[in-house]
């Protein structure tokens, strides 16, 4: 076929006879058998000792093709080993000269499946494959596919669009994996989105593939960062910030100094990575991080854009927010005000840099966001007063009650708290983490007191996937409260259902929670919730699927009609069979 002709066309250029030549010889000769014998002699393996061995193989019925093929395979293996050896020996320019000559000679045979591996091997070992050859490879889908990643890197670095096509599906896969974890049907306060250590996350398939594609190539690394910045700007999706940090740290793990030393965020990210591993910013690392921020020089402010993206990674925000809550509790014990704690001020500084990442990259104005004094002088002391309220209540419960009767838990929220959650992004983030904290402590009173403040928050943060993922996990610790009408009404009617119809993700999270805890909810309440959570015409597949799963579970819980009607008593006592505990 035409494919064959094309495949072997390269042989003639090298002065090697091919099928076409044999056809020509046979067409123009008088004694075909003699001609074939001569062709075999001229083009066979030129080893005198073979002259007697071949007829012997013929006697054993071994086809010549099989013999030539095995010799060929053997030679190819030797050649591949030799090429790899040449790539390591002698003076640099000499070895590359040898390889370039070899490529020149062999490239015309690149379409021959048997020779292709050798050509590919030569190219793989050349730090600079000639431009003309790269263009030929790029123009041919199959050749491009067969190329080693070392050769592809050389193609990609001058073809951003082609590189983008390769990277794009990986980035999509990465975002999808993150969302699958946030919406997972497994709900637990022990295992959540933030449980895997940074080291474990970096072993993920996408990070590993991107690391492999980049190699030590700074230009490709920069391209990937550019893609991540662009996508973050376009979608506001913070998982791209996580990938930015993971990629840098993955190259750090492999000690790729060619890249790490030129990324100005490297040492900052490395230090922050250690904090994320501990889920806490200790004093020593706090000093170190502060040193990096204070060390940003005039004229180099652009690095703040990169640092803000590293700090906008949800894993970084989670660590900073948890550390902030811990600091506030310590301050209550020490009778110290927030403004007197440099460590706390640094955490707030980093939180606001992270939360300001999108605006900074969008506006290209690289300066640290201003910290609002009120956050420090009014909001944080408010949170501390909640901590004090809890202490007071607990102590009061333990005191012998004189006639005064039990002291009720404070049920009102200061208006200032609600206002801060609506108008100040950092206050909102810290407020939400405080609510996660009291839920984890199974502090039902404090939870119900503050819950109404979550209905309206800054840019709907209380309805974001990460917060709802963590909240549903922590609520499993209060599972016994779900039997109480008052608790369910506050949580579902007062909070979740206010957003279900306008926010598909909230609909999904409530259904996840009910799938997990339905057996704790009073039957009447469960039925009204099942109705309230019916999918609408606009609902996506995920919501429909979850609602179906819930309905199936509830079907199984309903007693069957037979059990409801009274069974006539039998004369003989039946042996009692223990029923399996139904969930």
TrEMBL record:
It holds the Pfam family COBRA1. InterPro entries: COBRA1. Residues 554-583 are annotated as: Disordered. One of its GO terms (cellular component) is NELF complex. One of its GO terms (biological process) is negative regulation of transcription elongation by RNA polymerase II. PANTHER family: NEGATIVE ELONGATION FACTOR B, NEGATIVE ELONGATION FACTOR COMPLEX MEMBER B. This is NELFB factor.
């Amino acid at each position: 076929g035409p494919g064959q002709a094309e495949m072997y066309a390269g042989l003639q250029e090298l002065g090697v006879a091919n099928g076409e030549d044999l056809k020509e010889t046979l067409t123009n000769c008088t004694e075909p058998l003699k001609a074939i014998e001569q062709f075999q002699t001229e083009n066979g393996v030129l080893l005198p000792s073979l002259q007697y061995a071949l007829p012997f193989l013929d006697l054993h019925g071994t086809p010549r093709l099989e013999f030539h093929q095995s010799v060929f395979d053997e030679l190819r293996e030797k050649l591949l080993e030799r090429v790899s050896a040449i790539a390591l020996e002698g003076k640099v320019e000499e070895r590359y000269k040898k390889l370039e000559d070899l490529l020149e000679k062999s490239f015309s045979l690149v379409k021959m499946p048997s020779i292709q591996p050798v050509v590919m091997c030569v190219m793989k070992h050349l730090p600079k494959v000639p431009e003309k050859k790269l263009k030929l490879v790029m123009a041919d889908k199959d050749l491009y596919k067969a190329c080693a990643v070392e050769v592809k890197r050389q193609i990609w670095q001058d073809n951003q669009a082609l590189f983008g096509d390769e990277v794009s599906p990986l980035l999509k896969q990465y975002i999808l994996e993150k969302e699958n974890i946030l919406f997972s049907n497994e709900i637990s306060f022990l295992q959540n989105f933030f449980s895997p250590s940074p080291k474990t996350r970096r072993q993920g398939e996408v990070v590993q593939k991107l690391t492999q594609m980049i190699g030590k190539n700074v230009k490709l690394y920069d391209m990937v960062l550019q893609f991540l910045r662009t996508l973050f700007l376009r979608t506001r999706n913070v998982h791209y910030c996580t990938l930015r940090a993971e990629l840098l740290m993955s190259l750090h793990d492999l000690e790729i100094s060619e890249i790490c030393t030129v990324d100005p965020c490297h040492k900052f990210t490395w230090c922050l990575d250690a904090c994320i591993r501990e889920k806490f910013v200790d004093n020593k690392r706090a000093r170190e991080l502060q040193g990096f921020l204070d060390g940003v020089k005039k004229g180099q402010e652009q690095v703040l854009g990169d640092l803000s993206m590293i700090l906008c990674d949800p894993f970084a925000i989670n660590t900073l927010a948890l550390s902030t809550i811990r600091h506030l509790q310590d301050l209550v014990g020490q009778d110290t005000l927030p403004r007197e704690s440099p460590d706390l001020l640094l955490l707030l500084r980093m939180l606001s840099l992270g939360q300001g990442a999108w605006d900074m990259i969008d506006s290209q104005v690289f300066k640290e966001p201003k910290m609002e004094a009120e956050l420090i002088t009014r909001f944080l002391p408010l949170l501390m007063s909640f901590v004090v309220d809890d202490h007071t209540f607990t102590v009061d419960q333990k005191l012998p009650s004189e006639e005064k009767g039990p002291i009720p838990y404070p049920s009102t929220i200061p208006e200032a708290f609600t206002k801060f959650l609506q108008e100040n992004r950092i206050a909102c983030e810290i407020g939400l983490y405080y609510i996660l904290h009291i839920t984890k402590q199974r502090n039902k009173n404090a939870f119900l007191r503050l819950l109404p403040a979550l209905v309206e928050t800054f840019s709907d943060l209380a309805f974001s996937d990460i917060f709802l993922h963590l909240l549903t996990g922590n609520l499993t610790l209060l599972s016994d409260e779900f039997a109480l009408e008052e608790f369910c009404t506050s949580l579902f009617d007062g909070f979740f259902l206010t957003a279900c119809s306008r926010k598909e993700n909230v609909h999904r999270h409530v259904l996840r929670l009910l799938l997990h805890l339905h057996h704790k909810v009073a039957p009447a309440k469960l039925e009204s919730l099942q109705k309230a959570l019916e999918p609408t015409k606009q609902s996506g597949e995920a919501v429909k699927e979850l609602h179906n799963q819930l309905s199936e579970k509830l079907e199984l819980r309903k007693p069957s009609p037979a059990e409801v009607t009274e069974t006539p008593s039998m004369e003989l006592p039946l042996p009692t069979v223990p029923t399996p505990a139904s969930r």
